[in-house]
Known about the structure:
Blueprint lengths: L3 E5 L9 E3 L6 E10 L10 E7 L11 E8 L5 E7 L7 E5 L11 E5 L4 E9 L2 E9 L8 E6 L2 E3 L3 E8 L2 E11 L2 E11 L4 E7 L1
Parallel strand pairs: 2-8, 3-9, 10-16
Antiparallel strand pairs: 1-15, 3-6, 4-5, 4-7, 7-8, 10-13, 11-12, 11-14, 14-15
Amino acid sequence: MKRIIILILMAFHPFGCDILSPPNDGKTEISGKIINESTGKVVDNISLILVKGIGDGSLLGNNGYKIVAQTNSDNDGNFSIFYNAGNDKNLLVFYINKEPYNDLYSGQILHITPGTKIKNKNYSVYQNTSLKVSLKFTTQPEPRSFSLWFPGGGTNDTSGVTTRAKGNFYNTIRLNYSIDDKQFEVVDSVFCPIDTITNFVLNL
């Protein structure tokens, strides 16, 4: 287990998504298999949907989105999804495990250029498990402000619980706090088995 304490001046960590850009004929085809990354087994009945923005076509705007294709993985984890966007060049979003969301597993989001063709690829979901994180200030006074972050959420309290930790993987715990107008970050990790609640105490 490793811990890193960093004096932060400015940090930006944007959420990243894969952007897939093939030759564009508007016909989007995606097929493959859903794998439980925590166990290596296939996963059935995982929802897969393609959506596009409505109104001005922007998925980042306030106009909302429209589902244009959807399916579920079968008993062997396989799926195939198709959409013909025609001349519409706006990005699509491919959601794995959404609407309806299976809370036993994590999800994925891929930004898709119309005309994408991907066949027989494995897509991973992680089996969710429970993690309780507690914070103890043992070497210095409790700072006036702090934020504790863990998979699936965060809190401004000294403890928090999530049911979306990655099962059978190390999960990152972050603490952000300030002292005398200086900002600090503590990063730690804990291994979380599936089908059990992991209790983790972060001492500072």
